[in-house]
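Could you help me review a protein record that somebody else here produced? What it holds is a sequence and that sequence's fold in token form. I have pasted the whole thing underneath without changing anything:
=====
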Amino acid sequence: MPHLLIDSILAHFPLAPASACAGWRQAGYLGGIGLGYIYTDWLAQIDYTTPDFSGFALTVGIFDPLNSLSDNNLNYASAGKKAPGVHGKISYTLPIAEGTKLYVSIAGITQQQNYYYTLPVVPAGVPSTYEYRGTGEDIFARLDVQGLEVFGYYYHAQGLGTTALFNLGAFGLGDTRTSKGYLAQVTYKFGALKVGANYGESKLDYADGADQAANPALVSSNRKETVGAYYSLTKNLTLLGELSRVKSKSAAGSNDATTVNVGAYLGF
């Protein structure tokens, strides 16, 4: 998927905190969703990917647009979307040596939100409709050297919100909020055992002073650190142990949680 964040991280992401804390209109989820990236959900989409050109590939596509998860303006309702969302990604894979490879990608996404006044009579000075556009871009790089895997990721968005697409992305009648975040991970595999650590942080800024006055407890950041060990008992069965710490912050304070996870994963 060429969404704002990514196919590459989720496909190679062994470290995932099992729970997090609720933080001022913001929640942590199983699997570390939204901690260092925006979760794109499962979108109905049509994409085209070019053939490989000396390691380069381009993917472009459209997707079924999403309604905002959090816009809640009195007497306004979401209008039907005028166009699908658009996303794209360009990637480059460089084989360096046997067992050594570098992968880099840059992705972008954009979609419009439209709203209309629901009452029969529109008061003087009140707009009958409003709209805003959510846009975002990210960059991802991963290096594999034998049993070592290292990756880094950064995103920046306007009007897309935090944690999930179009969650807390705007205030009022379409005043968009800026969000950004980063994620880093390193793992190393010793035979059947893989150990690693990662760190991710997502940040959300107020749209303006009015937004800050109206939402003093709006989440400003969510971050987490995880260390873990994963043992492949069989081809399909993996035993795991993890330690994670997650912290949510707002102007009103902070909330944190520490979790220890021990379990097994069966894939088939």
User: Anything to note?
Assistant: Residues 1-30 have pLDDT under 50 and may be disordered. The radius of gyration is 21 Å.
